[in-house]
Structures are given as C-alpha cells and as structure tokens.
C-alpha cells in the first residue's frame, strides 16, 4: 500500500535529517519507487539493497533546494518530472504554546521576532511527505522532547497542500 510506503519514507527522512542535529535549513527529497530507481541505475542496488517490500520508496535529497529563496517562493517554482512519485520536506519552525499567542503582534515580521526571542518558544522539526495520488503523512518532533514523535496524515495540511501542488502536471 502506497500510504504505508509514504509513512515509512517520511520516518526514514526524519531519522536521516535528525542524525545531523538541529538548526538545519529546509531540506527537500524526491520520492522514487525503489524498484524503478534500481532498474534505472543498477549500480545503486549494492547501496540500496534489493530486499524491499513492494511499493518501497527511496528518498533522493535535492541538494540545490531553496537557493536563498523564501520557502513559499521556492515551492511555488518547483515542478517534478513524472518519474518522481512524491516528495518530502523537512523544516524546523519555532512557535509559541497557545497561551502565549495573544502576545503576538499582527505584523508577520514582528511576530517572528517575538517568537524567536520568547522564553517559552518551542522548536519543532516537521517532516511532511506527499504522493501524486494525494496521500500525505507528516511527523513532528519537539526539540525539548526528542524521544516523542507525533505523526499523521493531517498533521500539516497547509504544507501538504503546497507540496502536492509541486506534483501537479
């Protein structure tokens, strides 16, 4: 089932990104069916292995993603070839717990400064993946509670929608 393969790929990317620690830029990965990747590049079989369940997805990091652009702008300029089944985006964001949201000014730049300097801010790594068929899955990890991982299809609906738009023909 592709949604299970997507969840597995998102978890794999989260572990990969998490191994490098915190304070990372947004990172983007293409998702390609592993059997298609090995068929196109047999030399990768030794690195990827050949014992994968049906529908397994391999992630391929897009090293040149973001290029200094705003994340929204970078996603708006992104389009994938038909060989890409989906994509995963990892990003880190700071936020305030709900009881402090009333302290935020209306101006987005000022609000960002308040959050960045607030003593109760929380930091989250969010890893969100989507497939061309509309399947979506996301996981989130708080910096203050690194052993707990939250996840689900509806965890990041806005980001999922933006990623799905990059897959449209």
What can you tell me about this protein's structure?
This protein is an alpha+beta fold. It has one domain. The chain is 32% helix and 28% strand. It has six helices and six strands, in the order αβααβαβαβββα. It has helices at 2-18, 34-40, 45-48, 71-76, 108-117, 157-166, and strands at 27-33, 57-61, 86-95, 122-131, 136-142, 145-152. β4 (122-131) and β5 form a beta hairpin. The protein is elongated, with a radius of gyration of 17 Å. The two termini are 23 Å apart.
Can you count the beta strands? Answer: 6
Q: Any idea what the shape is? A: elongated
Which bin fits the share of residues in helices?
25-40%
Task: Give the N-to-C terminal Cα separation.
Answer: 23 Å
**Average of the residue pLDDT scores:** 88
Strand order of the largest sheet: 2-1-3-4-5-6
Q: In sequence order, what are the helices and strands, one letter per element?
A: HEHHEHEHEEEH
How many strands, which pairing sense, and closed or not: the largest β-sheet?
6 strands, antiparallel
Uncertain runs? none
Taken together, the total number of domains comes to: 1
Number of separate helices: 6
What is the beta-strand fraction? 25-35%
Question: What structural class do you assign from the helix and strand content?
Answer: alpha+beta
Radius of gyration: 17 Å
């Amino acid at each position: 089932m592709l949604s299970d393969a997507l969840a597995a790929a998102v978890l794999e990317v989260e572990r990969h990104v998490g191994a490098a620690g915190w304070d990372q830029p947004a990172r983007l990965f293409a998702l390609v069916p592993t059997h298609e990747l090995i068929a196109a590049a047999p030399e990768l079989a030794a690195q990827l292995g050949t014992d994968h369940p049906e529908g397994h997805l391999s992630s391929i990091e897009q090293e040149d993603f973001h290029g200094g652009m705003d994340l929204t702008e970078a996603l708006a300029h992104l389009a994938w070839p038909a060989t890409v089944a989906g994509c995963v985006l990892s990003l880190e964001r700071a936020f305030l717990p709900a009881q402090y949201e009333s302290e935020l000014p209306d101006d987005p730049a000022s609000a960002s400064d308040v959050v960045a300097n607030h003593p109760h801010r929380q930091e989250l790594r969010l890893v969100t993946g989507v497939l061309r068929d509309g399947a979506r899955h996301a996981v989130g990890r708080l910096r203050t509670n690194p052993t707990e991982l939250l996840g689900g299809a509806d965890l990041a609906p806005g980001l999922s929608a933006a990623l799905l738009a990059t897959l449209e023909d």
